Structures are given as C-alpha cells and as structure tokens.
Structures
1.
Amino acid sequence: MKKLKDFIVNSRVWRSFFRHGWPDNPLDRSLIMTTNVFFHLHPVRVNKRSIKALYSFGLGVITTIMFVVLSITGILEMFYYVPSVDTAYFDIITLQTQVPFGQLLRNMHRWSAHLMVLTAVLHMVRVFYTGAYKRPREFNWVVGVVLLILTLGASFTGYLLPWDQLAFWAITVGTSVAGYEPMFGKLIQKLLLGGAEVGQASLTRFYGLHVMVIPGLLLLIISLHLWRVRKDGGLAANEVKDEIETEVENA
Ligand code: HEM
C-alpha cells in the first residue's frame, strides 16, 4: 500500500497537480494561504472584530453567492428559452409546466435576483455605516457603486424576457422614463429599444445584455472588488487593534 502511495505521489501527473508536499511546517502553511486563489481572500491574520457575524452580516458574501446561483440557474434557463417575440412567452409557460423542476428553476432565478438587489443595497449601507468607504478603500467604494448599477441593470434587462403584459409595459414605462433624461435620454431610449417602441429588436438587445454583457462585466468587476478587499488589508475592522495587541504594545 505504501509503495502504491509513493508511486502515485512521486508520479509526474500527481506532481503536475500538487507542486508541494503536505504543509507540515509554518512556512508551507502560510504559502497555502497566500498562493491559493480561494484562500487568498482571507489574510493570514485577522482582527477578531472583523469576523464577527454582526460586523458585516456577511452581506457582501451573500450577494456574491446570489450572483453564482443566478449564473447557474440562468444558464439552465437558457436551455429552454428562445428570445423571440413569437415563442418567448410560451417558452416560459413550458418551462414552468412541462420541464421537471422548471417552476423551481424559474423561481430560484427570480428570488435570487430580488435578493441580490436587496443584499447589495444593504451591503452598501453597512459599508457606509462602518465608515469602510474611507481611505484606503475609496476606490473599492467606487467599484461597488459600479457593481450596484450593473446589478440593477441585470434586473431591469431580465424583466422584459418573459414577454408577458407586465414585462412589455414595465419596459415601455422604464425606457420612456430614461427618454426624459435631458442630454442623452432619447439616444439611450433608442439604443435600448432598437427602434421607436418595444419589439423584437428590444427583446434581442435586452437578452444580449442580460445573458452576456452584464454577467460578464459583473464577473470581472466582482473579482476586482474581492481582490481589492484583500489588497486594502481585509475589512476595515482589521485596522482597529485587538485589546491583546494594544496590551502587548503598551507593555
Ligand atoms: C454585486 C455587488 C457586490 C458584491 C458581490 C460585493 C461583495 C463584497 C464582499 C464579498 C466583500 C467582503 C465581505 C463583506 O463586507 O461582506 C465586500 C466588501 C466591500 N464592499 Fe462590496 N460588494 C458589492 C457591492 C458593493 C457596493 C454597492 C458598495 C458600495 C458602494 C461596496 C463597497 C465595498 C467596500 C468599501 C468593501 C470593504 C468593506 C470593509 O472594509 O469593511 N460593495 N464586498
């Protein structure tokens, strides 16, 4: 058995996956934290206050999880949905009534979307309340504002896709409101609709924005946001010294 284990562990295939042996010393253990893309999010040492559930309420993490759920359920919905004014409405009805777990899939996508908007806003309120927008995190605050706009954009573009009365009139009203913006309103309205009123061109554009452009940008910018959290020294609470650290410094 040991021979087999040695053979596997020393093989080129194994070593191409795992470059180091077991982390059985402090240096290797901290290397795991600093070189692994998933663990890298957590600093090697953190202030106790920053990991208290009631400090961040985990709102940023919940928002990230909602994005992952939306991506997975959205890809599955794409298997059944064609963005055509002739079929879109019936595709959704078929998804809900004929496809196994179709209703669950649609509801998971819908509720996660509502929740993502809610938690992104609450996360912003939490960041403001704890003063985490201040130096050196002001850039990440701006990145966050872009994320919020993209999240709202994803919600808005998804609204048209069921192609029912609610969707049609909500987008008619929404794009008309955009049209009243004094400088670029009319241009934005025309670019979004692809014509004078909601029609096939609008559905194609909203679909493209909803399944490719906005999720792609969100993925890229959420990655930047999380990387900046790490580079800015973890959560702002880390800057408050632990009682024990203060005691050591004063001793
Ligand atoms: C798609 C939307 C967003 C996602 C997925 C997201 C994700 C996260 C995560 C996972 C964290 C670290 C843990 C936590 O604080 O819960 C974080 C921190 C942070 N976020 Fe967001 N965020 C989003 C939107 C925003 C918005 C709208 C703002 C503000 C305008 C913002 C500003 C910040 C700042 C400044 C930090 C550092 C907080 C600190 O040091 O205490 N984020 N974000």
Note: The two ends are 54 Å apart (CA to CA).
2.
Amino acid sequence: MTAHPAPATRQLASAAEASLHAPSVFNTQPWQWRIAGDTMELYADPDRQLAATDPEGRLLLLSCGTALHHARTALAATGWTSTVDRLPDPTQPTLLARLRLGHAVPADPEAQRMAAAVSRRRTDRRPFGDQPVTGQTLTKLRRFVEAEGAYLHVVPADQVPALAVSTERAAGAQQDDPAYREELDRWTNRPQWRGDGVSPETAVEPALRRVPVRDFAPEGNPGLSADGGIDKGAAYVIVFGMTDRPADLLRGGEALSALLLLATADGLATAPLSEAVEVAWTRHLLTSLLSDLGEPYIAVRLGYPLDHEPLPPQARRSPAEIIRIER
Ligand SMILES: Cc1cc2nc3c(=O)[nH]c(=O)nc-3n(C[C@H](O)[C@H](O)[C@H](O)COP(=O)(O)O)c2cc1C
C-alpha cells in the first residue's frame, strides 16, 4: 500500500503546483517536475518547443526559468529554505535544475507578497494609460532582477522608437514565414481540454501603439479593445544577461518571473514582448540598445491600464500532467 507522501514531498508538490501559473511563450508550459523525497527536478519538455518561433529554445529556457522561480517563491513564502543546482548534469541537457528542500525558517515577507501575486498576475495586452511608472519602482524592479543573476535595462524614451522598429520588423518577418503562421494558428486554436495556448479572449485588437503588441488573434476575433490609451505612461524594460548559455537563460527566466510578480504585487500591469528577440537580426538591434554589453533575453511593457476590468485567466495544464511524484 502507498503511504501518504512525506511532509517534504507535500511541500515540494505544492510549490510545483504554484509553478503551473507561471507565464510561458505561447502558454506552452514546456516543463515537467519530478519529485522524490526532499528533492525536486525540473525538466524541459522539448516536445513543447516552438520550432518556428523559438528554434534555439531560448524562450523555452526563459519559460522554464519562470516556473522555477514561481516554485522557489512558493517555498520561501511558506517558510522553507531550498538550494538549487542549475544544469546539474552535463549528460542530461533537459534536466534544468535540481531543487533540494532545506529547513523551516520564518517566512520571507517579500516572497509572501510575490506568492500572493502568482494567481493574480496576467499578461495584459491592453493599452496602458498616462500614469508613468516611477523611477523608484523601476529601481526596485532592477534590484530584484539583479538578485536573480540577470540585468535590467530601462529603455530610455529616445530608444523606444528603436524597440518599436525592431519589434515591428520581427513581426513582419514572422508574418512572411508560413511555418510561424501555422505555429501561431495551432497555439491560438487549442481545444479547451489541452489547458494550454493563447485564447483570442486575451488578445487585443490591432492598433497604433508605442511598441506593437503581438497579434494573437490572426483570425480577427480579439477579446480586448485597444481604445482609450496609447501606452503613454508605459515603461519598457529589457531583461538581459551576459551570455546565451542555457544556465544564464534559465536565470533570465527566474529574473523575468521576479520582475512580473513584484510588479503585479506593486499594482502594475505587465506584458512580455519577445518578437524582437525571436529573429536573429532584430535581436542584434536590441543588443545595440544595451551598448553591446549583453545578450537581450526579453522586453517587458509595464504600466497602469485604463480599463480595470479583470482579465480572464489563461488556461493551464493539470498538475497530473506536469508533476510526477516518485514513491
Ligand atoms: C518567454 C516568454 C515570451 C512571451 N512573449 C510574449 C509576446 O511576445 N507577446 C505577448 O503578448 N505575450 C508574451 N508572453 C506572455 C505569454 O503569452 C503568457 O505568459 C501566456 O499566454 C500565459 O498567460 P498569462 O501570462 O496571462 O498567465 C511571453 C511569455 C514568456 C514567458
């Protein structure tokens, strides 16, 4: 007969469940967890890699990093230490992290605020209003990103046109690629039972924006209106790192998660923008915005939406599909 799982296993399973809410490219949720005793392993799921949009698997690694950070945050918020070994076995490149549960400690209040934001956070593609994001908020976000081992570039106003052009050119190149169009079509028309993909309900109608937003409703049925704001007060940031090695991209994803959760906890709306990093030559344009000092991982739009109507949650896969507990 199977015994009840040990307390350590229960803690880890509940942290892995928190990671189901993590953001991922096209909502592919390309990860798997395996739990044994006090150890939990994160695996990339290469079958969920987007061959046309993400041929090198950079966005897959960023997505897995957000899941890892969500799980770490859930543990810290319930008062557990943990240690993480990233890419621990060179012979198993899909084994991205081995997380070992430590001991009980007083819960970390900052982690509690971020954990409370996990189920509230949404990618908000609506236009943001005029209220600016303060320098103080951006400084705090930068500190959190740096604590995760990545860097944050706050795009100054005179660089926003370059970000816009890079994004627009990347989107244009992708629209000319039948393999991209087929992939987008597949991930925006998912049967509900799959619990993944981007539903047109969360897509916004095409409109003039400071930086274009990906068209997730290519059939022309977006659920969100673009009326009322032009992203005037939005801040644009780029999460970047020193290399595009898997361990650094994984940390980039952890930093992205920290940024999104902290911003949500502080009342900001957030929307990742990755088109410009998906196409090699526009990614190089972004590198020049970083004074050629790093490797751009992803851009994010931050701000205050005019419309406060809560956004529908995007579907998620079930824990049974993603978490395996060895007994
Ligand atoms: C690596 C990565 C890249 C993403 N790129 C984009 C993007 O280019 N445009 C966009 O609107 N959303 C983007 N997203 C957001 C995802 O579409 C979103 O996380 C997913 O659909 C789940 O929805 P949720 O964030 O509301 O939970 C990205 C997310 C991640 C983690």
Note: The pocket of flavin mononucleotide is lined by residues 23-27, 59, 62-63, 66, 122-123, 125, 198, 213-214, 271-275, 298, 314 (CB under 6 Å).
